[in-house]
Each structure stands twice: as C-alpha cells, then as structure tokens.
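User: Batch of two.

Assistant: Item 1 of 2:
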Amino acid sequence: MTKINYLNNKDLLDEIHKSKNTYCSFIKSEYHQYDIILPDIDKINIRSIAEAKRNRAKRLAQEEYELHKRQGGKLKQTEFEINYKKILKNDLVFRIMTYEHIPHNATRKKNPKTEADGRDRVNFPPFQHWKFNEMDELICIGKSHWKGTVEKGKFNKEHGQITNNLARMFIKLCERYATRGNVRGYTYNDEMKGQAILQLTQIGLQFDESKSNNPFAYFTAAVTNSFVRIINIEKRNQTIRDDLLELNGMNPSYSRTNEGEHAAGLKRHETQEEI
C-alpha cells in the first residue's frame, strides 16, 4: 500500500490516467499512453505530429532519468535528453476527444445543445486512441468506455474504477482542507469531509487533460464548494431551530443571542449619535 505524504499535479495526473484506463480497451497494453490530445482526427497534421514527437521524447527521457535515479545514479537530467526528430511517426499515439463510439440517447434531454447531451451519460469525456500503421494509414487502437476488443467489443461505462492511490489522494486532500482555520472549528467538520470525499468520487474523473494540466486546482475547488454547501445547510437548519425555540419561549443558540446583542448595541449607538 502506497502512503500518500503530499499531493502534486504530476502524481494526480498519473493516477487519473490509470483510473481512466480501467474503463478502456486497447489493441496492445502499451497503447494506453498517448503523446498528444487533439479535438478531432482532422487535426493530425505536420505540426501536431511534430508536437507529439517532442512530447514523446520528453516523456521517454524523463522516464529514463527517473529509472536511473531510483537505481542510485547521479547523472544529470540533460544527459538523458532525446532528439525528437529521431522519434518515428508510427510510434506516436494520438488521443482524439470524440463521442463517436458513445451510443445515442434521445430520451436524455429534450433539447440537446451539445453532442454530449444527445449521447449516453459517461463519467469522463470519452476518447479514442489512434496511430499510423506500416501503410501510413491511421487506425483506431483504443476506445474509452469500451469492453472487449476494439473491433468487436461494446460500450460499457461501469466495468472500471478509480485506483486505490487516487482514492487515498481524495481522502488526503479533504483531510488537509478540513484543518484550515476557517472550517476546522465547526462541530460538523466530519460531515463536511464526508460530503467532499463523496463529491470527488463523483466528479474526479471528469477532469479533462485536454483543457488543463492542473487537477489539484480542480479538486480543491470541488472540495471548497462541498464544505461551503454543508456550512450553508447547517446555518439554515440552525436558523429554523432558533426560530422554533424563540416561538416556544426558550433561549435560542449562542450565535443567535450574540447576533441579537450586537444588533441592539448598534441601535443604541445610532440613537446616541442622533441625540
């Protein structure tokens, strides 16, 4: 079991990628790693191919350096640099963001505004992986939300799951946020953490790598919204309880009493100024 001591975007992106792969099917297991993300297959051109080669060269160099570092090597990272021009076009893997393989669903929304509205709901933006074969033709080598072979498989959005490490990262993020000075004093702190963890499990994989490489900010925003939501709900409930206590001639909460005393003090101050 891997212990999560700290969180960073690199590790989060890696675990998100592994989690999404459990919902995918590839011709070969090594085709899970993409070199560039494109919105459409028509965007595969000279420029995108060159960028994919640079990305692949950088990734391979980084992997080789980290492997050497784990083995106790002391070489500089620059010594592992790879000339991207030596990368073959046939080795590149293109991730294409598309709903083409997602079934149509006319009953989901009456007035669909986007392509996603007219398809089955999925837990993260769907994609396909493509590469060039020996005949210099583009072929599909992988699909998200797919079970079975790429050619004869079928759509399936429930056979995967998030990795254990990503789940631990969600818990760690919520626990650290719960220690902030503006939330740690609430008696329902555990409830806020539980709601935040639930929210992350629901929207965690919706992070789109094609639009951002900062999942930490995405997750932190989701956690913040969950904490604020619970605080607002508890405040509304407390207001109702205080109203019921006052209607029955009983003392309200300490917060309501302080608010009343503060309002009375302001009123006395305004009255003295007028005199």
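Item 2 of 2:
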Amino acid sequence: MSLRFKIVIPARYASTRLPGKPLVQIIDKPMIEWVYRAAARSEAEEVMVATDDEQVLQTVKAFGGEACMTRSDHQTGTDRIVEVADQMEWPDDTLIVNLQGDEPLMPAQNLTQVAQNLHASGCDMSTLHKQINAQHARDPNVVKLVADHLGRALYFSRSPIPFARDPVTAVDYCGHIGLYAYRVGFLKSFAALPMCSMEKSEKLEQLRALYHGFSIHTELARQTPGIGVDTEQDLHIVTAQLQQSL
C-alpha cells in the first residue's frame, strides 16, 4: 500500500514584487493551475490550494481543482496550512506536503520523495536540497544548509555554509529547496512556538524548528527543480522552460 499524503499549496494574492502572482498568465494557464497540475502528477491522495482571495478560489474551482479560503492576516504559508487543517478537520497524523504557489517547475517525484522521507526518517519535518556552486553559495537569496551523516539538518543560512577557511579547500554546497513535509500534529505545535533570534536574523522559518529541538530530514532531490517565480524576470525564464516542455 502506497503512503498516503496530501499537498497543500499556499497561494497569497498580494505580492510586493509581482502583484496577483497566482493568477499571472503563463502561456495558456494561470500560474496556480501549472502548480496544481504539477502537484496532481505526484502520488498525493489530495491536492488543495489555500488562498486568501476569491479570484484565486474561483479560478482553481473553474479548472476543476480543490481550494479553501483562508484568512488574509497569516504571516506565513505554514500558518495558512494550519488553518486549512483545522477547517478540514484532518487528524494529527495526516501527512502534508507544503508546495509553494509560485513553483510551477517543481517535479512531481520530489513531492512524493519528501513525503516518503518524512515517513521513513522518523523526523518531525522533511525537506530537500540540491548541489550549488560557490558563486550561488555567496548569494544571500539562496538558502544553504548543512546536515549530519543521517541526513538531519544542522543549520540553514543565507551565508555560505560550511565556511571554507582555506580558500583552496573544495566545498560541497547544498542549496535548500523550499519544499516541506510534516504531520498535522507537529504543524500545530510548531505554529504556536515563538520566533527565535536566529529565525528573525536569517528570516528563515525552519530555524524555529531546529531551535526548539525538532528534527528536519533532508536529502538530495531526485530531480533538480526549476526556479520559483518572484519577479518578472523569473516569469520570463519559467515561461520559456514550460514552452520547451510542451
């Protein structure tokens, strides 16, 4: 019997750099439809869009997807997913994969992978990473991570980690992929925790979990995803890559 899990896609309408991002047209579909259909190709038993906007809700329903209206005052996508779990009355052992609504190039096999890893590892959360070069490691917009020999994350940072004290030392840098799996019970406990100082400094929510003693499993993604859409330039790149795949 295959592992049962759900995918929730937080899709906030307001975006500073790209207003109305979930409904931005990419070729012949709004972005949220591309993301939804990528999720539907995984082994998930259910895919749900969590939004704060009626237009997004109706758009998802129009193409045959499932969507849930949530409050507009959530600070993070995690908080939005907690509300969905409460509305749907999902049991605490329900496994959820959090797929961001601006990731139309996320391979379906990665979604199944992160769910399977959570189940197999026994950790509280699971995520994925990819190999990056030294130039990308120096980019603060690229989140890096280091892990132990069992695949448990030790730290996430916008700084290059590990730091190469000797410039000639070859370093294998891991770039974090913003994809998470967790169970509803953990998610509710996590959302109730106070922010820690390193989370505030790095602006990385997952550091709250590490600070409070929770474990995060990570593994090299089976397929390296394309970029997410944050800017107009990203949109042009993603559009070109999707056109090539048609």
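The chain is about 35% helix and 25% strand.
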